[in-house]
């Protein structure tokens, strides 16, 4: 079958496509002059009276075309018209793809066909087109502005290769899902293997549109968008290049294009300009190993992962917004704005950190002020008193400070001998207790980074979290190693205990902590810098995919200092830690830490007798647990014997974290710990201690009648501001403090030495959360909403994404929920919004569990009573009161309600859907 030549054409009218963007460019390539269809926003900018001050050159992959960049084109034009830097976007359709020229062919494409256009030819084509366009610009004398490349799929590696060979012109590079290197010991991804198999290649790519349809299924595309991507590929003669591209994939070193791909890889590794890697982890072709390879070649690159995205990441998420934000961070600061490409400094931060250069700030003090995390442990190396008691082991295991120092130092030396380097990531698949403490502090001593993903995330959530962090090592107990093997988690494996030859081979473990603990000590261990990463702690995932929160050594030292300062936790204090994050701080503050007998993923398994036994073993005067855990402690208090009651009576301080504690629960806790001061500090993974309130404070706050949950006032060292919420439910860029913040509904924004340093591999999330610069401090947007009263107390009213935008203005659901929960027939509630933004109706959803209520509409008397309460307190009207068969909550705290899921359920029920459907 012969395929005739055809000239380049202009696309028809397509959704989201401006015909003014299209032009035909003739360029002289390696085999003659050819016509290319090019997306070029210059005419649109000129028509708007805007002169470009930067150029983005974009390259699509296979089987897409420049339509892939339509939203970036629109975003750049809109931004330029609004006064931002004017980026011109140039996006050619590769030769024979999209609406560019088709060459004549006499046979189907195969890997060895002389008609196949190779990788080297495509880079030469790209160079020819953009060079001709740049020549136009040079003729006007305005060619000094920055040039940035962006590519996707095979366009990613081609554009990166071109950028690396044109560093005199290119100021920065961006790539979406792509690959540079196919490891010899890893198979080609299954979809490609199937396509490359013999006659399947022409059948799947040219004779049918199967390859195109499968690719377009890897994104959330509507029918119109899919049809637009199909537009240049209606017939087999239009699709020859799709098969050409697949045929030219170098699957091994015998392929004709393999030497060129290897050269490109080396060139990219020498590229030292700013770079951004955007990734959709659900891509079945461009797998995590390809991102890992790119990060090794571009260590300066920022990374942003859209955890729910697949191959067509730009179709699923706001990639244009991310790109423009990143470009602004690179080029719009006073030092870099309007700077020629060759003079633009490389501001990209560590790819591991995912931290925006513009969002960096020093919140941890100078290096001289920071005490090493293991300083107290090292100072107590000869102390024979008890450092830790682990009730998770049977029998309970006690270890001294001397033993803990010796074991952690030996393990640290053993890890170094094994090949663990400072900065390596080590996934901790070990439950809280002595083993985890030993592994963690051994890593901290040598500058390895501990990755902690809560088992409460479940296998899927943990897989997503650990894959995102991409650790080089895993230290695990048998259950963790089993999950790692089953789900293919990355990292060389170390067991806690020796497994024996058979199980060692099964789980691919190289050694054990037990064996490493016998390693002789070196004279000196590496000394990590204060600003070096120390840990990646994952959030609970209660409001979306769990995020990895980066803590440096300075951050952890500051957190230890805050705990010491705020609650007088000093050396020798006995601390029962039923809340895992604080169990690990014991050696950093010199406290004797006791891990009670409980399941980490099930806080309600902590009983009164278990916590009393832990108090006795550690001679503890301080107890830390979650509200869900305390509920069961109070419920099982009758099982305490006389000695256990006496031990509980000796506790001086009770702390609860993870969720606010209502006065009723505080009163119940006081029955168990009659002589303790009961506190409920407020915090989050990003800032574990921010405000504090005690039992008397909660009682005083309750008496005011304010709506919400009062969490007290900021602790010493924490600055708090409020970003007011507008009618659309968004928080303002303006920050209010003092009297101007009082009584306003807003998002809480905090600054402190012990808040996170960033989010891991989430560049935009980091930049957005730390975008404020009030008083020159580094701030964190908490995503928690509420108000500050005239006494300076903080009242929580929910999460920013759960704001209900009623015709009367925005409403924080937590305030009304606290009011509804006070009714004797209600165990807990959730207030959600139904309908369009700005006109949402308020609906109260009650939890049926633990009550006599039946799922469906609430009883008329209860509904009327709750409506009256809400109307009197806030002037709001409840459209409906529903009872849900179950409430979706996070596992870690067993208290954070997923209001989004309840809103979907309520909307369905009110529309006539099933009451007992999945919530």
From TrEMBL:
AB hydrolase-1 domain location? 55-317
Give the organism the record lists: Brevibacterium linens
- Keywords of this entry: Ligase
**Domain AMP-dependent synthetase/ligase stretches:** 381-759
The identity of this protein, by name, is AMP-dependent synthetase and ligase
Report the family membership. Belongs to the ATP-dependent AMP-binding enzyme family.
> One GO MF term, please?
medium-chain fatty acid-CoA ligase activity
GO BP term (any one): fatty acid metabolic process
Annotated region (Disordered), positions in chain: 334-363
């Amino acid at each position: 079958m012969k395929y005739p030549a055809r000239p380049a054409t202009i696309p028809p009218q397509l959704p989201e496509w401006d015909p003014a963007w299209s032009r035909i460019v003739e360029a002289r390539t390696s085999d003659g002059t050819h016509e290319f269809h090019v997306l070029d926003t210059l005419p649109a900018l000129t028509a708007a009276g805007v002169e470009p001050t930067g150029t983005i050159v974009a390259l699509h992959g296979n089987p897409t075309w420049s339509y892939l960049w339509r939203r970036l084109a629109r975003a750049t034009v809109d931004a330029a018209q609004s006064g931002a830097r004017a980026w011109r976007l140039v996006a050619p359709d590769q030769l024979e793809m999209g609406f560019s020229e088709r060459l004549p062919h006499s046979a189907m494409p195969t890997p060895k066909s002389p008609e196949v256009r190779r990788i080297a030819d495509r880079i030469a084509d790209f160079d020819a087109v953009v060079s001709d366009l740049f020549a136009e610009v040079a003729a006007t004398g305005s060619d000094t502005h920055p040039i940035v490349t962006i590519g996707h799929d095979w366009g990613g590696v081609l554009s990166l290769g071109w950028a690396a060979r044109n560093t005199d012109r290119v100021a920065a590079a961006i790539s979406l899902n792509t690959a540079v290197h196919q490891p010899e010991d890893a198979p080609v991804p299954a979809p490609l293997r199937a396509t490359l198999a013999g006659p399947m290649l022409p059948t799947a790519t040219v004779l049918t549109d199967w390859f195109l349809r499968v690719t377009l299924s890897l994104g959330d595309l509507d029918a119109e968008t899919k049809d637009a991507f199909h537009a240049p590929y209606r017939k087999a003669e239009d699709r020859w290049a799709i098969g050409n591209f697949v045929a030219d994939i170098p699957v091994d070193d015998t392929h004709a294009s393999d030497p060129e791909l290897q050269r490109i890889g080396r060139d990219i590794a020498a590229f030292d300009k700013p770079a951004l890697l955007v990734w959709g982890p659900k891509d079945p072709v461009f797998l995590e190993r390809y991102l890992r390879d790119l990060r090794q070649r571009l260590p300066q690159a920022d990374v942003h992962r859209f955890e729910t995205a697949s191959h067509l990441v730009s179709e699923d998420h706001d990639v244009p917004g991310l790109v423009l934000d990143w470009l602004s961070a690179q080029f719009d600061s006073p030092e870099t704005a309007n700077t020629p490409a060759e003079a633009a400094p490389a501001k990209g931060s560590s790819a591991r950190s995912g931290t925006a250069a513009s969002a960096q700030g020093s919140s941890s003090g100078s290096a001289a002020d920071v005490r090493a995390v293991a300083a107290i442990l090292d100072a107590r190396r000869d102390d024979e008193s008890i450092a830790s008691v682990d009730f998770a082991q049977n029998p309970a295991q006690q270890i001294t400070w001397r033993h803990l120092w010796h074991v952690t130092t030996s393990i640290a030396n053993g890890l170094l001998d094994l090949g663990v380097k400072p900065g390596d990531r080590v996934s901790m698949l070990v439950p809280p207790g002595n083993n985890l403490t030993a592994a963690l502090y051994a890593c901290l001593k040598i500058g390895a980074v501990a990755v902690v993903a809560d088992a409460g995330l479940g296998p899927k959530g943990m897989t997503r979290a650990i894959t995102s962090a991409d650790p080089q090592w895993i230290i695990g107990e048998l259950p963790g190693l089993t999950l790692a093997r089953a789900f293919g988690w990355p990292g060389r494996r170390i067991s806690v205990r020796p497994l024996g030859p058979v199980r060692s081979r099964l789980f691919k473990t190289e050694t054990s902590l037990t064996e490493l603990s016998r390693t002789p000590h070196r004279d000196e261990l590496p000394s990590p810098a204060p600003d070096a990463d120390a840990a990646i702690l994952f959030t609970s995932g209660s409001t979306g995919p769990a995020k990895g929160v980066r803590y440096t050594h300075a951050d952890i030292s500051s957190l230890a200092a805050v705990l010491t300062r705020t609650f007088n936790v000093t050396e020798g204090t006995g601390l029962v830690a039923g809340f895992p994050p604080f169990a690990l701080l014991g050696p950093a503050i010199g406290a004797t830490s006791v891990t009670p007998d409980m399941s980490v993923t099930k806080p309600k398994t902590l009983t009164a007798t278990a916590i009393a036994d832990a108090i006795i073993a550690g001679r503890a005067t301080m107890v830390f647990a979650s509200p869900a855990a305390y509920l069961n402690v109070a419920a099982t208090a009758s099982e305490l014997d006389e000695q256990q009651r006496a031990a509980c009576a000796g506790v001086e301080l009770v702390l609860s974290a993870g969720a606010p504690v209502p006065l009723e629960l505080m009163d119940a806790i006081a029955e168990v710990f009659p002589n303790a001061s009961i506190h409920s500090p407020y915090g989050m993974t990003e800032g574990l201690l921010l405000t504090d309130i005690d039992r008397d404070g909660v009682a005083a706050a309750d008496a005011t009648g304010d709506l919400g949950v009062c969490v007290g006032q900021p602790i010493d060292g924490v600055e708090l501001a409020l970003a007011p919420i507008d009618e659309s439910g968004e928080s303002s860029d303006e920050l209010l403090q003092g009297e101007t913040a009082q009584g306003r509904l807003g998002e809480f924004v905090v600054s402190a030495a012990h808040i996170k340093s960033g989010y891991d591999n989430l560049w935009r999330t980091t930049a957005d959360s730390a975008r404020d610069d009030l008083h020159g401090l580094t701030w964190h947007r908490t995503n928690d909403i509420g108000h500050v009263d005239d006494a300076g107390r903080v009242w929580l009213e929910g999460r920013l994404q759960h704001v209900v935008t009623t015709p009367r203005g925005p409403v924080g659901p937590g305030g009304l929920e606290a009011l509804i929960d006070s009714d004797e027939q209600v165990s807990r509630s959730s207030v959600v919004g139904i309908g369009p933004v700005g006109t949402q109706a308020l609906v109260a959803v009650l939890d049926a569990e633990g009550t006599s209520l039946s799922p469906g509409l609430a009883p008329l008397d209860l509904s009327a009573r709750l409506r009256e309460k809400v109307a009197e307190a806030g002037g709001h009207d409840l459209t409906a009161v529903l009872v849900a068969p179950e409430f979706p909550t996070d596992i870690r705290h067993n208290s954070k309600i997923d209001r989004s899921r309840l809103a979907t359920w309520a909307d369905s029920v009110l529309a006539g859907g099933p009451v007992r459907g999945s919530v």
